């Protein structure tokens, strides 16, 4: 066989092989991605040459074939693409595919991982895992001679004629002993699924296609159905709930970008710092990390972004500041905002049903991105306690609610079954609706389960409460709203009792001649003595109600400013906030139980009996316990004490 050339690879390449072998990429497995990418590129070039009329006859069905031979320690990647001539091998292989290898080495010898994305250099990644690399190729050009190139990882190579008869290229790697995993068919299948699953060419191993090939994001949205999008999501993220909605990205100016982003159902422990979007370049998987491309508030989105215009070969800090990357991030943000706006306007039933999850994205995005905030500020909705039947139909303002009919947001006053519907409203509508009763004041609930008693009190007096109960609200979104609406005061339902909830009871201020104290003073002293916690502030108020028995005998109140300071301190220390020792115990003097307690105390004074006095103390503590329980404020020791006191109270009550 005639030797066409024998020599050294040019331009000081003895310096590049140690870099390639040791640290060209973080993961050696990348070599297969690079070789397959080059094969697909060769097939694409042959197709273009055929369309230009440069190829005689028909071209075969595009295919990349992988073969492994564990016995001989080899793996080969073959394509039926454009092939190469001897001169092209000299130009593109021996000269390392760029004009200055010295500059290349100086740039990357300290951080060779920055090479990721240079698919043109993919061939040389083979030397990370191979002790010898061979190229067997025949160019599509008429009369071309097949050639065979080989190199053992040193600067020496050999280029000879080959007896190959089919157009295309086969690259064969003789693997190093520590890299024999790549001669295992299952390992190859795994790598193809990871990196090359959506490449537009069939990839075959053992006569079986092993890649999906269908890159849905490259198709036009008009030719896709909802089921197509759902099936693709299930393929990408098996064993997860179906997504809420999705956005199809498609632009070719001022940059080329395709993709599909999905809004998943959020888990309570969602981490906004870790992305789940897969980054591709020309349908080749590059990374699971898009932190520098996707705005932080969209990190929990899932799906695919494919763009050849993202500069993958630079450091992350440079990537963050890259102008194209910033424009791509702005484009994605705008498309997300437009998608939400169209859903809000065109399918509000779906918008509402998705809000518990989508709302977190929207709120966090409004906090983090000024442009996004302007897009979505009118789309932010809140669940509310408002019911139109508390006013006349003429007075009833519009509150938008989810209904069973086609009109997802109908006027609640027109809905006969409004009691079973959870209404939603915007903040501006809330403020307008309540400006006469509580101007520029928002009463909100952050935990419906523990604050239900307080919410019911407000509802019974016709006062509207908003629910700000997602995990983003307390520490982030409410402070954001207070900055945006600087004239508005936000107060949690358990921070204080609105003056409309209490009534003046002049009888409470009458001085008892036997004790020289008012009824309220006696009640306060009873609880202070029984509870014996100086940091608990005892207050007495009469809750307004037609059914005093239906109101709580006591309530724990947490002043807004103090509670927020403690929540912020706990957040900064990354720990759960303990229930504040400083809080208010509000005794509802209109409740029958409190009157009975006073009567019991009077009998104690008359009888001077220790047993009766003990019962008063027990009852005071029991009432306090019940108030704490509504706030879920018990620790293990508190619960133990509560059970013991409860048993003692029941024992005393059942004595003959």
Counted by DSSP, the helix tally is 19
Radius of gyration: 37 Å
Sequence stretches where pLDDT stays below 50 over 5 or more residues? 97-102, 110-120, 314-318, 390-421
Number of strands: 27
What share of the residues does DSSP label as strand, in percent? 15-25%
Proportion in helices = 25-40%
Distance between the termini: 116 Å
Judging from the principal axes of the Cα atoms, what is the shape? elongated
The description of the largest β-sheet is: 9 strands, mixed
Estimated structural class: alpha+beta
Mean pLDDT: 82
Strand order of the largest sheet: 1-6-5-4-7-3-2-8-9
Structure description:
Helix content is 37%, strand content 20%. With 656 residues, the chain is α+β, with helices and mostly antiparallel strands. A 9-stranded mixed sheet has the order 1-6-5-4-7-3-2-8-9, covered by helices on one side. Strands 17-16-18-15-20-19-21 form a 7-stranded mixed sheet. It has a 5-stranded mixed sheet with strand order 10-11-14-12-13, with helices on both faces. The chain is elongated and about 125 Å long. The N and C termini lie far apart (116 Å).
